[in-house]
Amino acid sequence: MALNDAAKLLGQARHVVVFTGAGISAESGVPTFRDALTGLWSRFDAQSLATPQAFQEDPELVWGWYEWRRQLVQRVRPNHGHLAVARLGAHVPQLTVITQNVDDLHERAGSESPVHLHGSLFAPRCATCSRPAPLGERETETGTDEGRRIPPPRCAHCGGQVRPGVVWFGEQLPESALEAAARAASECDVLLTVGTSGLVYPAAEIPRLAARSGASVIQVNPQPTPLDPIATVNLPGPAAEILPALVSAAWA
Ligand code: BV8
Ligand code: ZN
């Protein structure tokens, strides 16, 4: 049965890579990119907002969107999927967590220094001098209203415009993060891909690189994805249910 096959692969692994996308945070209440954006954001498509052009054209709209997302993340909690990934660290000799997500739920679940390929909601920086900028305090308990425009703050050092610390479409990924991810993918013996549509490059190259390097690939996703053909074992279902069952089956 697929879960036992996956558990066996995990139990024997020396170096495991966990590669996650928005789907692992879905059960914490964080909308994925595939979900139609909710409320006032529904008239936008994430891919059109997550670009330097959008920030250029309407910095208040884009900054307001990231502030809304950051304050939403601050109000939710890691789910059993994030917690199971953190528990893996106690069982496998070497674990590398690589995420495309910009939330901090892996960290809050106890995963040490996950590799953030697409940056973080919690690392705003000056668009001019790149100095880190402080996080705004929470607007209200319920966070900013959806769709609310908020003027991006100014850099205390140079007066430049502060931007979200994420990688937008058309922007390069952080060199060091991509290198660390590629190295881990080429060295690991099992790559567990969770909650990603496997559509956005170069991040989507990571599971493919692991497969090409001889690793077994375990996929956890309720839907079929372009990664299905490279998965040694496919576990169709939600991460918060499958991952705890997988970790318990591997180290019952
Ligand atoms: C770059 C941060 C070049 C921002 C993100 C044509 C072909 C190939 C490439 C391109 C192309 N045209 C353009 C490109 C490049 C582009 C790209 O790949 N586009 C795609 C759309 C084709 N890539 C880029 O622009 C990258 N940069 O290429 O630079 C360059 C070269 C030289 C010089 C300069 C530049 C940068 C891409 C990074 C963009 N930033 N995020 C932010 O968050 O706002 S991407 C964002 O979307 C995510 O981070 C993620 O990477 C991506 C996809 O999201 P997923 O995480 O996969 O989530 P998604 O919503 O898609 O799916 C959710 C999944 O979860 C689903 O499968 C669902 O079934 C599953 N799920 C749901 N519930 C659950 C679940 N799974 C488990 N449990 C559940 N409960
Ligand atoms: Zn500055």
Structure commentary:
This protein starts with a helix and ends with a helix. It is elongated. The mean pLDDT is 94. By secondary structure, it is α/β, with parallel strands linked by helices. The chain has a six-stranded parallel sheet, with helices on both faces. Strands 4-5 form a two-stranded antiparallel ribbon. The longest helix is centred in the first third of the chain and has 17 residues, at 59-75. It has helices spanning 2-12, 23-26, 46-49, 52-57, 59-75, 80-88, 105-109, 175-187, 205-212, 239-250; strands spanning 15-20, 94-99, 115-116, 125-126, 162-163, 190-194, 216-220, 233-235. The protein folds into two domains: 1-30 and 78-118 and 173-252, TPP-binding domain (Rossmann fold); 32-75 and 125-163, SIR2/SIRT2 'Small Domain' (2-Layer Sandwich). Helix 1 (2-12) crosses helix 10 (239-250) and helix 8 (175-187) packs parallel to helix 9. The chain contains ten helices and eight strands. The protein binds ligand BV8 and zinc ion. The site of zinc ion has 8 residues, from loops. The site of ligand BV8 has 33 residues, from helix 2.
